[in-house]
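$ ./design --mode recover --in tokens.txt
reading tokens...
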């Protein structure tokens, strides 16, 4: 039996043109979901993993598999449905899964034979068996998987055309940020994989750079932090020799031992969602966690950087409390905190989130011809009516923020600081240039 697993591209995220540029490998990420599905696929299935961000896909190079599985984040939906339609026209059954179709199941079923909701690690072999027997159900519900059963990904299936390899170590997130889809898919109960299986999987990764995709690698509870310390200790013992990046929360700064272990285990960069510069903003999006107990963010960032770890801050524009000048404010705050680099996105309501419910009720979602408009839910385009800023003004504020933060002077200043503090100056410079390039590319 032949299985064809596809990661659809979205032209406004990764332009097909970029496939041909030399640096594409630094702008794309491996589709971990499909690598995990491949990991639990019985060995009598022949798997082709197809990433549209790497290889152009057209009718000529389209094989004729027995089953097609497509992963769907919201902005991938229009393309995913298009691909699904073309295979089904040729009589090939199509199964869809991922964060978008878990919530928009009825929509997705118009384009596919089956939809898998939630985590598919356990249910996938059952789906394959049903496909083999030609008795696919319309909907499969994948409950949150017991952490002992979270599958290891097949890292051998994709070509070496990526700068970074992904791995997932924990699932679920306790925070209740209004805009985030993660708890819909993975729940609020954090689950940790057995450390032995993580180390084993890390050893199968060929790339030197690793992206740990967990929503929050270190978590917020005592048990989470204890797990993270044990994980880093085992990574050091196993001499993994990888450089890794991960999403965490600012409380990582509160534990010197944790920071020292992370750095020794290969942590080069952490990504923190600061989201907004104001208290009102944090309340609006349910992320007061960032300033809990009167936290001094600049000092916290500094403590992390002392361990030679770079800090990337992500921010949103388009909150109800955002007004003209917010772009410059974010750039200033980013500089004040001493962040090594930042990213500024448009506040975007993904279906099923609390943000979606609120804005939908208030009829403020302006890109609303679905499924076509899902393609605009990329975080780079305004898709809502913001209280005090027009769509054009939101983009202007993002532009101001980026040009302030990534001015040549500022990039050179940050690189010089990184040299003085002996914190990866080359990585700092390259990362700043990468962000600058991404921003200027649009
Ligand atoms: C890594 C990551 C990326 C990477 C790469 C994604 C990739 N292709 O693998 C990059 C940086 C490129 C990226 C980009 C984007 N991302 Co992103 N990303 C993530 C992140 C951090 C991890 C995703 C991951 O690998 N998870 C691990 C895998 C195993 O989980 P999974 O994908 O959910 O897969 C499981 C199930 O969903 C299901 N499943 C998934 N696909 C399929 C397919 C089939 C056939 C079946 C049966 C089952 C199935 O089974 C899997 C195993 O249980 C998540 C947040 C998080 N921590 O989960 C956000 C997340 C997935 N991203 C999100 C968003 C919004 C985006 C962007 C739109 C915006 C952005 N710039 O970040 C772009 C869109 C990219 C595009 N192609 O259009 C949202 C998705 C919301 C939504 N409704 O779709 C998330 C949930 C973040 C959030 N906080 O809300 N992302």
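writing sequence...
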């Amino acid at each position: 039996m032949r299985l064809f697993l596809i990661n659809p591209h979205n032209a406004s995220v990764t332009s097909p043109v970029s496939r041909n540029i030399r640096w594409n490998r630094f702008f794309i990420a491996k589709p971990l979901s499909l690598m995990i599905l491949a990991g639990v696929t019985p060995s009598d299935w022949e798997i082709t993993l197809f990433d549209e961000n790497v290889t152009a896909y057209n009718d000529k190079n389209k094989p004729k598999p027995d089953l097609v599985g497509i992963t769907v984040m919201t902005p991938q939906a229009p393309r995913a449905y298009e691909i699904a339609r073309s295979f089904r026209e040729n009589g090939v059954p199509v199964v869809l899964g991922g964060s978008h179709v878990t919530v928009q199941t009825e929509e997705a079923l118009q384009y596919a034979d089956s939809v898998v909701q939630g985590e598919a690690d356990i249910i996938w072999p059952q789906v394959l068996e049903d496909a083999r027997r030609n008795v696919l159900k319309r909907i499969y519900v994948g409950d949150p998987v017991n952490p002992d059963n979270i599958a290891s990904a097949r890292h051998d299936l994709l070509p070496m055309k990526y700068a970074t390899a992904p791995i997932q170590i924990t699932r679920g997130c306790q925070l209740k940020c209004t805009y985030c889809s993660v708890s819909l898919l993975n729940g609020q109960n954090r689950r940790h994989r057995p450390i032995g299986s993580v180390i084993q999987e890390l050893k199968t990764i060929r790339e030197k750079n690793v992206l740990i995709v967990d929503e929050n690698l270190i978590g917020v509870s005592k048990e989470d932090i204890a797990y993270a310390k044990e994980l880093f200790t085992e990574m050091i013992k196993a001499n993994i020799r990888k450089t890794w990046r991960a999403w965490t929360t600012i409380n990582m700064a509160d534990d010197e031992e944790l920071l020292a272990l992370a750095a020794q285990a290969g942590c080069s960069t952490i990504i923190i969602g600061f989201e907004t510069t104001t208290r009102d903003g944090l309340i609006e999006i349910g992320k007061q966690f960032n300033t809990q107990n009167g936290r001094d963010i600049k000092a916290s960032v500094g403590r992390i950087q002392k361990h030679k770890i770079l800090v990337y801050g992500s921010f949103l524009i388009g909150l109800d409390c955002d007004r003209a000048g917010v772009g410059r404010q974010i750039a200033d705050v980013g500089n004040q905190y001493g962040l090594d680099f930042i990213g500024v996105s448009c506040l975007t309501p993904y279906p099923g989130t609390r943000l979606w419910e609120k804005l939908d009720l208030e009829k403020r979602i302006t890109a609303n011809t679905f499924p076509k408009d899902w393609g605009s839910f990329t975080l780079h385009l305004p898709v809502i009516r913001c209280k005090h800023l027009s769509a054009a003004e939101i983009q202007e504020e993002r532009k101001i923020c980026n040009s302030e933060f990534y001015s040549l002077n500022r990039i050179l200043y940050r690189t010089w600081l990184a040299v003085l503090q002996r914190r990866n100056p080359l990585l700092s410079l390259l990362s700043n240039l990468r962000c600058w390039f991404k921003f200027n590319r649009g």
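exit 0
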